[in-house]
Amino acid sequence: MKKRIIIPALCLISLALFLISGSLTFASWYVRSETVNKLTTAGVSGKVTEEYEQDRTVYPGSRVNKKVQVKNTGNADVMVRVHIEKVWGDSRDKNGRVIPNTTLSTDNIKISFHTENWLLRDDGYYYYMSVLAPGETTPSLFDGFTIDGKKTNGKYKNKNADIIVRMEMVQAEYHGLSYWGTSFAELGITYKGTEHIPIMTTAEFNNPTDGFTFTANGGDLFSEFKNLTRGDCRSQFISVANNWDRKTEIFLSAEYIDQSYATEDNYKSIIDLLHKYAIINITDQYGTLIYSGPVYGNTDIDSQGTNSMKYPISLGTFFPGEAKYLNVSLYIDTAMDDNCNDLLALVKWVFTAQNSSTDAGDPYGGSGGLWGGDFYTFLTGEQGQPLLYAVITLLSGVLFIILAKKNRKNKA
């Protein structure tokens, strides 16, 4: 009779120990994967080329040849505009520029502009009416000027004059003209640009062993944040998915990454881009703000709010096979320095995952499981650990006593 009681008791104790030890194993898995994302700024640069006979004495009524063109020395299609300023002065500064004398009218400096290629707008700029490709040079804005003898009197004797050419460029693609408050349609220009096919980037959680897989551009999630220029506003979606067959909570954070590839000349510009000029906003698919601030994540700020990505931010609990979307938008401040052109900057994002705390009692995504979620969470939490270990110790002691008594009986 006693033998029949002992055997079921041993089976129950063993089962209890198995379930409890299994609960301890299920409670503590955690995995992280990181991705290095790249921002690049466009190489928007150019120069004004002038053919001009310097230091020439000009007499009223005479013509001076002066040819003004603009060359695209960067690596992106650009739009060009030029502002012309005329000045008279008594002398020049150490850089050779005329020191303006505002009492002398400049109406007597006559310039014939080539309006077939350039459009004068209300803002005072002449807009080149075509897209300028890398390496190309514009037709001349003008080829010379004359001094109107009827408007030039003795006050201008021995005076100096300058025609100051100020040139600006913006990237033709990605709505670069919006920086000037205009558009191709408003200028009457047709431009298709490079055919752009949006790339869907994904961060997929596989399982606790294999971690995450990042797709698109060798793990670079910032598919749309390339060839940026001042005033740019870009946005893209990043899919975050749970490919595992168990309910999982996923988190996002950022970490410092050394821009060690940078040269001594552009390191400061890269830091300025990441810390000052590139502003990012991340929301979930319902519009809830996750982070807003400098693109590097503002990890210098010790905050768990939406102004820093220093600490992991929960993206929610994902059911098996569920995908959610992050809406990521990036804005480049119009105050960005010209030294920030043609740069590469890196941003490190870290994705982490752990079993969902909302249903820790059921690792398969159910509601309660063997133990019930609340009780299971209590047992595997810090407060429940002493009780759990006490139960294990007690059951182990009971098992030892039963086995000892059985051993003595067998010897007898």
Task: List low-confidence stretches.
Answer: 22-26, 358-378
Task: Please write the string of helix (H) and strand (E) elements.
Answer: HEEEEEEEEEEHEEEEHEEEEEHH
Shape: elongated
Between the first and last Cα atoms, what is the distance in angstroms? 17 Å
Major sheet summary line? 6 strands, mixed
Side by side, the strands of the main sheet go: 12-11-13-18-15-16
Count of runs of 4 or more consecutive helical residues: 5
How many beta-strand segments?
Answer: 19
Q: Strand pairing plus helix content: what structural class?
A: alpha+beta
Report the portion of residues in β strands: 35-45%
Model description:
The chain has five helices and 19 strands. It is 18% helix and 36% strand. The chain folds into three domains: 2-14 and 362-411; 31-42 and 197-358; 46-187, Sandwich (Immunoglobulin-like), CATH 2.60.40.10. The chain starts with a helix and ends with a helix. The strands form four sheets. Strands 12-11-13-18-15-16 form a six-stranded mixed β-sheet. Strands 4, 5, 7, 8 and 10 form a five-stranded antiparallel β-sheet that branches. Helix 1 packs antiparallel against helix 5 (385-411). By secondary structure, it is α+β, with helices and mostly antiparallel strands.
